[in-house]
Amino acid sequence: MNAVQPVATKSIPTSPPPASPLAAGASVPLAFIGAGMAGAVLGTVCLVRSPAVLALPHVHPQVVAWTHLWLLGCLLTVCAGAIYQLLPVLANTGFRGQRLAWVHFAVHLAGVAAMVAAFEASDMKWVGIGGLAVSVGVVLMAHHVVKMLREATRMDPVLAAFGLATAWLLLTVMIGVLLAGNLHFGWWNVDVLAVLRAHAHMGVAGFFVTLIQGAMFRLVPMFTMGQAGALRRVGWAIAVAQGALIVAAVSLGLELAAGRLIAVLLFAIAFGLTALELRRVWRTRKKQHAEPGIRGFLVGLGWFVIALVGGGALAFGAGDWRSALAYGVIAVLGGVLMSVEGFLCKIVPFLVWMRVYGPRMGRQVTPQAATLGHARAEAGWVWVHASAVALLGVGAAIGNEALLIAGAGAFALGQGLLLASLLKSASHLWRPVEGAAARAASF
What we know:
- By secondary structure, the chain is mainly α.
- The protein has helices at residues 27-49, 61-90, 98-121, 124-151, 157-185, 192-224, 231-254, 257-283, 292-315, 321-356, 375-398, 401-426, 435-441.
- Among the domains are: 22-153, no CATH class; 313-356 and 368-430.
């Protein structure tokens, strides 16, 4: 008999295993968020110890150091963690860059620490070195963003906003490093204040506002059980805002008064288009009661509108350096910080629940994600923080130390309330509830 011959078969290519919906089991985003909130604690301590710093000119080294502590140490760190978690989910891909993300985490924290200390000491050499470390981290994050966008099953304006925000961040850190190097070595004869204003607006409006503007049209419907916004209208709102940013950056850098006015007008149109579409989304929500985190986010958007009015007044030549400092306080501690921390009230419990209780679903009773934090503490944070920003903004505008002291105290109380809720959620990572306790926590 003939021997049975083996049948040749083609090897079937195997696709990579599906990526987890959590970035590295939520360890990467939670690490960034935790480090960012540690930066917020440090910034709050500095404010309480020396509230009179907000009565100094906005180019004073200590003011610049505090600004970078809040923008890079707190807000950029938190937003990087959110990007690592949200973007793969929105792009319908997956997170596969754990090693590079941890490298980003390390170099970012080292760079921020070096920059803040160097600004305090007016040492531009170490500002540049720290800035280079932060830039390396930003490049690593940009690599992740580009990779996720290329793998996205479908590109839309929300995903485009993540890419645009990252591009503005890259440009911001590049200009910052060059500016620090120029101050130390004297390469070019440039108007430092003009470039500094352009640099600040590219960071705050280019990165943070663009990111918030795009992400809100996925997160607000998700958290309120509403319908997503119409992508065409969202796209128009983002496009007009990008036009405003380009005009603003060029006009501020070259000191073109007419350009600044055009930028303010374009920002107003972009804010109006965004508000109209967000209102349409809000009307479709199934959760009629707005939770504290969403309320905080909406109050943050209100501070952005106030900052736009203030920026418009400055563009028309009204006000002085105190007004410019108040404008920055309202934009950063009011608009950006309240919007980001409002979303954290929802994001942190979700990440903790998915990491701790997601694998236990169907095998034991688990608490609801919404019960992990402390709703009353979050509600208190919203109104205390809003009041603090008002006191700090007015105090900075008129140089009133009593208002700054009161504002710093209220600000610390608000951050304490928020931190208490976030820590209560995070405590489930090392002390999960089980059985009857989990059943009780769900009610």
